[in-house]
C-alpha cells in the first residue's frame, strides 16, 4: 500500500491534463448556461411584445398642440416613446415619455404639435416596438 501511494506521489504526468479537462468543462457549462439564459430572456421579450395592445381612441387639437387618447388592453404597462404625424407632404417625429398601466385609458398631451389640414395619420410607438395607428381625414 505504501509503495502504491509513493508511486502516485512521484508520478505527476497526467495531472495537468485532468486539470485542463475540468476547467474546460466548467467553461463550457458557463457558456451554455448563458446562451440558454439569453435565449429565455429574448423569448420573454417577444411574448411581451406580441401581447402588448395599445390603441388610439381619439385625437384632439388644442391651442398648445395635440391630445391623443390611448387605451392599453394588454396585461403589461406600456411605455410610449414616440408620436409620429404623417401628412401628404411631410412626416414628423415627436419624443414622448408616457406610461399607461394595464387596462387604463390615458390622454397624452404633446405641446407644439400642429396638425396639417390635409388627411393625415397619427402613429404612437411603444418601447417594445409596437405601433398604434389612427387615420384622420
Question: Could you give a quick summary of the protein structure above?
Answer:
This protein is α+β, with helices and mostly antiparallel strands and 137 residues long. It has helices spanning 2-10, 15-51, and strands at 54-61, 65-72, 78-86, 91-100, 105-111, 120-126, 131-136.
What does this structure look like?
- The protein is built from 2 helices and 7 strands; from the N terminus they run ααβββββββ.
- The protein is of the alpha+beta class and 137 residues long.
- It folds into 2 domains: 2-49; 53-136, Immunoglobulin-like (Sandwich).
- The strands form 2 sheets. A 4-stranded antiparallel β-sheet has the order 4-3-6-7, with no helix packed on it.
- Strand 3 (78-86) and strand 4 (91-100) form a beta hairpin.
- The longest helix has 37 residues, at 15-51.
- The protein is rod-shaped and about 100 Å long.
- The chain starts with a helix and ends with a strand.
- 12% of the residues are buried.
Overview features:
34% helix; alpha+beta; four-stranded antiparallel beta sheet; 2 helices; single chain; 40% strand; rod-shaped; 137 residues; 2 domains; three-stranded antiparallel beta sheet; Immunoglobulin-like
